[in-house]
Amino acid sequence: MSNVTGMQNRLDIAEWQNLLTVEVREQILGFWMKHAVDEKNGGFIGYMASDGSVSEDADKGLVLNARILWSFSSAYRIYKEAPYLEMAERALDALREHFHDQEHGGLYWMVDKDGKPVQTKKQVYGQAFVIYALAEYVRAAGKQDVLPWAEEIYRLLEKHAFDPVHLGYIEALAQNWQETDDLSLSGKDLNERKSMNTHLHVLEAYTNLYRVWKPEGLRDKLKTLIELHLNYIIDPQNYHFKLFFDDAWSTKSRYISYGHDIEGSWLLWEAAEVLGDKALEERVREAAIQMAHATLAEGVDEDGGLYNEYDGDGHLDATKDWWPQAEAMVGFLNAYELTREQQYLDAAWGNWRFITSFISNKETGEWHWQVSREGAADESYPKIDPWKCPYHNSRACFEAIERLERIKVNAINN
């Protein structure tokens, strides 16, 4: 049986896959190929407003460029089309030529339009995304010459950012890898020593790196990262992520981020599968299901969209950003694969319908940054900036297509 039962109109899985393919290839990747290339200064533009106007003098962020590298490397791995590889290699060149700190190693957080560093601190989150992207490039292009760079960044993080006493990773260090008081990832984040967000994406990076490079030390670090999430970051009372911590893992925030919760549920399972530790897999399976259940019960609106966050004191931010929607679709599909409970498949479908109805920008391409609870797009947010990138949404489409294929095959075989 290839129909997805329980979902409105009993949509055929193959049709859903086709819709996802059009979305990722035309709406998302097509937009970035057409609009994001900086022909004047090289690399990619740093900022585009919602109306399509470009700020030519805007600074360029490390995370944006690393995520472009990951997105188009992954696209090339899947579709094997040369234009995707060309985009990936453009991003790789930008990272090498402008972001790479030749003196101290690692990569700058921000450069200006000409590629000169303007924020030189070593944000661990940013270093992790470069590892993640380089590993994906190796997977896609089969070119091993970039692997030593990923290994070098990994060793720098382990030497300078790893906490040997309490475990985990410090948020940021100065350009020369010494201690700094400037720890916060963005203006929204607390200036604390450790965060869920950084650890989740170091986990993500090390998972992808372990796919292409398997030293015993990396295996141990990946296992430790999974255990840190299970032991400290997931709240055992409600199965939401705690967000900020001091060195010894005392929590510093009561906020709940629904997008991170559902993203973490599937990234943890992915990490456990790649690691291949069966005992740990069972612990992660239970945690992933509980996290998806909590998100579904508390974070999903009647229209299928995922709320942004809850402050812990009774205030719900019911606006809906683009990236939690992307992660919700994948996380609920992952929960369905783990449990075969129809509610998760229905939630994934409902979220996809919300995306196509309100988040995907059918007029100009890409996705709106944020919509109100009623679905109205907030045009004050940009289409491209240091955080607005093709990674969450392209990855969601890639993951959903692959997972739906497994679901389809399983349905046919059973």
Can you describe what's shown?
The protein has 414 residues and is mostly helical. The protein has a domain at 54-216: Glycosyltransferase (Alpha/alpha barrel), CATH 1.50.10.10. Helix content is 55%, strand content 6%. The chain is built from twelve helices and twelve strands. Strands 1-2-3 form a three-stranded antiparallel β-sheet. The chain has a three-stranded antiparallel β-sheet with strand order 8-9-10. It has a two-stranded antiparallel sheet with strand order 4-5.
Short description:
The chain has helices spanning 13-35, 62-79, 82-99, 124-141, 147-161, 196-212, 216-233, 258-275, 278-299, 322-339, 342-359, 391-413; strands spanning 60-61, 110-111, 117-119, 122-123, 172-173, 194-195, 244-245, 256-257, 309-310, 316-317, 320-321, 370-371. Strand 9 and strand 10 form a beta hairpin. The chain has a domain at 54-216: Alpha/alpha barrel (Glycosyltransferase), CATH 1.50.10.10.
Structural class by SSE content: mainly alpha
CATH class of the domain at 54-216: Mainly Alpha
**Count of helix runs:** 12
- Per DSSP, what share of the residues sits in E-state strands of 2 or more residues? 5-15%
Q: Kindly state the mean pLDDT as a whole number?
A: 96
The SSE order reads HEHHEEEHHEEHHEEHHEEEHHEH
Q: List the strand order in the largest sheet.
A: 1-2-3
Stretches where pLDDT is under 50 for at least 5 consecutive residues are 6-10
CATH topology of the domain at 54-216: Glycosyltransferase
Alpha-carbon distance between the two ends? 8 Å
